[in-house]
Amino acid sequence: MEQKKKFESLFEGYLSNKYSTADVDQIISDIPKDELRRLILQEFYETKEPKVDKTQVQRIVDNVKLQLDEILRKQPKRLINYRTIASVAAAILLCLSIGFYFLMDKPSTPSMISSYVDRSPGTYKATLTLDDGSKVDLNTSKGGLKTDDNTISYEDGSRATSKTTEFATLVTPRGGEYRITLPDGTKVRLNAATSLTYPLQFTDSIRQVTVAGEAYFEVAHNAKKPFVVKSEQQSITVLGTKFNIDTYSEVGKTRTTLVSGRLQLQQYATNKKIVLTPGQEATLNKNSWAVQVVDTENSILWTEGYINLNKQKLEQILSNLSRWYDVDFSIVDRKIEHLVFEGEIPKTKNLSTALAILEKAGNLVFEEKGGVIKVTTRR
């Protein structure tokens, strides 16, 4: 908490022009990237007249570029600290990303959007289905679930159900998220419209669960008992790692992103196997894998409270908004479905904020008819 107050004080001083241009590099180095993003977005969204303007954003961008140039100029090539360069480069990318918000006018009111009913953001909610078919509506005020000694409890220690069961399925609806700690200590976070089926005890030689939708795993290490995640098209085998899996059916593909550790993927149709290393993402489309190096932070932004727009097509963004705000979209003008956007939106904001940003950045119009929001190009 004290550290967060320090960051807020530094940032507030910068916004109040307390620091000179020469001091900006110290501010950037003192405030972690994630925290800087949070502070800037908070300033942008929560004040009627944000203090951050184009000039200040440009100062940050120019400053970190100067730092990178200075490092490259002063250091002999064989002595260059590439970790430092990576850090500065990350700051530049951060500035370019958040600059998306500030280089356009702040969306002031939903009146810019043609006509639709606003929606509140999703919340922390889920249901638990036991192996006898009975369902438990989980208490949203007690944190996530944990499974230990054949009992299912909330994080505060109270029992979620008194019934006994061998398997359980945790399900989040559209507009819901939830988290759970499995019997081995593995932590799983479920995105909206996702299900996770798991045993109350891992008694076999492997630890196996089944997922549909999108989930982020932090797997507890156990070299003698591999952890296996099954989905519709593939299985993932890990020993101890952090990764994200996206199997949403409307996408038609399965995306697996490795944050740390090592993964082995096997598809059911051909039994073909591949191994991922940190920073790689494998996309399985029918029977073919495509592997690429990605910014893993974008893949797990949803776990940090943001809707990712970075290099996302409009079609994919609307699918994500549909699940989080429990609303349906229809793209009337098909040529705009491949529009690509940049930036990120706090998941705590109403639908109107998200659509106002997309409307202005993509010159779009949103109009609700019969419970479906139609998307067209502004003419």
Automatic annotation (TrEMBL):
Residues 307-374 form the Protein FecR C-terminal domain. It comes from the Bacteria. Keywords: Membrane, Transmembrane, Transmembrane helix. The chain crosses the membrane at residues 82-104. GO terms for molecular function: sigma factor antagonist activity. The keyword Membrane applies. This is FecR family protein. Residues 169-262 form the FecR protein domain. It holds the Pfam family FecR. It comes from Sphingobacterium psychroaquaticum.
